[in-house]
Amino acid sequence: MNDFGNDWIELVPQDDGAVKHLLGMEVPRIALQATDATTVDLCGPGLSVVYAYPRTSPPGGNALDGWDAIPGARGCTPQSCAFRDHFAELKELGVSRLFGLSTQTTEYQREAAERLHLPFPLLSDHSLRLASALGLPMFQASGLTLLRRLTMIIQAGVIRHVFYPVHSPEKNADAVISWLKTNGVV
């Protein structure tokens, strides 16, 4: 059993080097639809944290066929809830913008954002414009193109740090907080 009482055995994602090129990269000006009905450009000023996740399951938790066999696929809800729970602390550390990012449509994401009571918007890269421009690692499952789990710290439109692979999604917010405290980007 895992920490959440589920019977599935978590497959640990391995660092395949797929994000090394991101460090120091400028984020392209690409408008993304957000669940709060705004359009977001990640090039903006300030300090942003963007965690990319594969997908949230619909209410009832129906995972895709073979989902448990994909290393790092499980854990989208615990990851989002951890960022929700640490939202105030991230703001205190100077994070001006926090976003979740997936390839799901804004309409699909909106349900999850409301159900999980997220105090920050989720961004849709359904068109894969940002993922393609940045060369984000992706995978295919049940005919869907999904993002591999990673978290970017972006300062004034430049990627300062990338967490990848994210092995324990529920601890990702803690890792971001620790990095921000240690690296003093504020």
Number of helices: 5
Order of helices and strands: EEEHHEHEHEEEEH
What structural class should be given to the helix and strand makeup? alpha+beta
Computed CA radius of gyration, to the nearest angstrom: 15 Å
Q: How far apart, in Å, are the first and last alpha carbons?
A: 39 Å
Spans of 5+ residues with little confidence (pLDDT < 50)?
Answer: 1-8
Mean pLDDT reading: 91
Beta-strand percent range: 15-25%
- Principal-axes geometry comes out as globular
Total count of strands: 9
Across the major sheet, the strand order is 2-1-5-4-3-8-9
Helix content: 10-25%
Layout of strands and helices, then pairs:
Elements: E1 31-34, E2 39-41, E3 47-52, H1 76-85, H2 87-92, E4 95-102, H3 106-115, E5 122-124, H4 129-134, E6 138-141, E7 144-147, E8 150-155, E9 158-163, H5 172-183
Parallel strand pairs: 3-4, 4-5
Antiparallel strand pairs: 1-2, 1-5, 3-8, 6-7, 8-9
